[in-house]
Amino acid sequence: MIASMTGYAITSKEISEGSLTLELRSVNNRYLDIQFRLPDEFRSLESAMREMLGTQLTRGKIDCRLTFTPYVNLTLPQQLNEQLLAKLMKLNDMVKSALPEAKNLTVADILRWPGVVRSEILSTNELHEPCMELLKNTLQELTAARIREGDKLKNMLLNRLQKLRQLTTELSPRIPVLLANFQEKLIARLQEARIDANDERIRQELILFASKIDVDEELSRLQTHLDEVEHTLLKGGCAGKRLDFLMQELNREANTLGSKSVDVEVSKISVELKVLIEQMREQVQNIE
Known about the structure:
Helix content: 55-70%
Domain Endoribonuclease YicC-like N-terminal: 2-154
CATH topology of the domain at 148-284: Butyryl-CoA Dehydrogenase, subunit A, domain 3
CATH class of the domain at 148-284: Mainly Alpha
Oligomer: single chain
InterPro entries: YicC-like_C, YicC-like_N, YicC/YloC-like
Structural class: alpha+beta
Domain Endoribonuclease YicC-like C-terminal: 175-288
Order of helices and strands: EEEHEEHHEHHHHHH
Radius of gyration: 32 Å
Number of helices: 9
Organism: Nitrosomonas nitrosa
GO molecular function, one term: RNA endonuclease activity
Largest sheet: 4 strands, mixed
């Protein structure tokens, strides 16, 4: 399957100490870049979580956010995170100094702040298994979302591919017509100037013009690249970098066609080719 680098998934899990929620956001990126936003109590899980994400994802900027909401139970021994509390009070004073009309943090605000109140029985070891299970489930949802998006991208690219093939088919018959028209005009001008139309210089002019407008090689390479793009899309897998390279090659051939154009219709086709290729290139940037 072709997978997009764009996706979103969020899942929650209830445990005895509270509620865990894991959110994964994914956007396109040249490499795999994973950013974590975890409560302090869960920082030790980052390495294992990074390893799991790396086994399923190869490219994209991934934002992984884990939140933990403990159940309110006054019978459980709890403690304040004094370091975090001191930082909050210092920040509160700084804001009041800059904005005297701002309201102070309330006790409720402070107690709700992530990490301020911690239960003494909260054990990272005990939370390791439910957190990793939650990540596994969320990752499955993210992967499914990326595949759904990738399938849409594949269909769009195949549609553009078909239009490119139609344009190249229209272009091929134009070259012999252009050569015949040039020969006809050249002979007519020579007859007006009373010059022998069978002169060797005339044949040389025709050969030179034919060489100038000959795009057989470009059309052949263009067709080869189109076949490879289709093969890559249907094959699936991590195809983003290969498709990006093929878009560059397609654009190169389209530019060459445009530079050899001596006809309005050929120029129009060349422009349409480049527009379609650019549309494909923009979408290819989102493919893993």
